[in-house]
Specification:
It is a single chain. By secondary structure, the chain is α+β, with helices and mostly antiparallel strands. The chain has one domain (33-115): Jelly Rolls (Sandwich). The protein is 18% helix and 35% strand. The protein contains one helix and eight strands. The strands form two sheets. It has a four-stranded antiparallel sheet, with no helix packed on it. The radius of gyration is 22 Å and the shape is elongated.
């Protein structure tokens, strides 16, 4: 009986060790934060105009109350862009080499928060 209990304990410890190897530890971003207001209209504009050096995460908030914002690459349009509803946000893990563009059907105010 003692051998069976010992085998069970060893089996469980190996299983928990294997699980622990797969755990991803997420570190908080505490180095710097930069907030920017950007006017977006019917032509694609970068969000923000200049990325914060060393950025790790970007949050884009559509500050308009009725018009959708569309985000994507430099040729983003209201047809192919990812829609962000009025008063909604999207957060993306993207370093400063990634440029995200925004476009809208009319002029709107967008807020961008960058973290590193």
């Amino acid at each position: 009986m003692k051998k069976k209990i010992l085998c069970l304990i060893l089996s469980l410890s190996v299983a928990f060790s294997a699980y622990a190897i797969q755990v991803v530890k997420v570190q908080p971003m505490t180095y710097a934060v930069l907030s920017t207001a950007v006017t977006v209209s019917t032509g694609a504009v970068p969000l923000p105009a200049t990325a914060m050096v060393g950025r790790e995460t970007i949050c884009i908030f559509n500050n308009d109350s009725s018009v959708q914002l569309f985000v994507g690459h430099s040729s983003v349009s209201v047809i192919n862009g990812l829609p962000i509803q009025p008063k909604a946000a999207i957060t993306i893990d993207a370093d400063d080499s990634v440029v995200i563009y925004g476009i809208a059907a009319s002029s709107i105010n967008v807020r961008v928060l960058e973290c590193k």
